[in-house]
User: What shape does this take?
Amino acid sequence: MWWVVGTTLVVALVAAYLIWTAGRVERLQGRAELAARALDAHLLRRAAAAAVLAERRYGVELYAAARIALDAHPDEREAAENDLTRQLRAVQLDPTDPDCEAVIAASRRLALARQVHTDLVRDARAARRRPLVRLLRMGRRHPWPRYFDIDDPTLTLPADVPAG
Assistant: This one.
């Protein structure tokens, strides 16, 4: 009689662990997908702010890079964003100017969103790499989470201009 109770208890514990693990994989995958959407929104905000800044002050090259970043397809997005970052670093941004300040703030928020996205993708990949998760194919409903590899979008200010 005791072996039936013990077997039932072990089966219940294994089932609870499997359900908890499947839920964790789903939650991490969902959070990584939401972080990817948030990162995309921040990329668009920065490119739009850079386009406005370029229209008003800095000219054709910055405007072209911003438009390319806004219109880029997903497989071309990383290269377009890196080009926009290089163009933004090439110009002197004045933090007292509202247009420049919008680009600087958008770049800071983008850097934070990128870090959050990278952390969540790393966690989701680690959870999906576990042998039990792979054996039971717990992550099969979702595509493998991808990193978004771009240069650090944080813009540095000139030394003689105080940060606002």
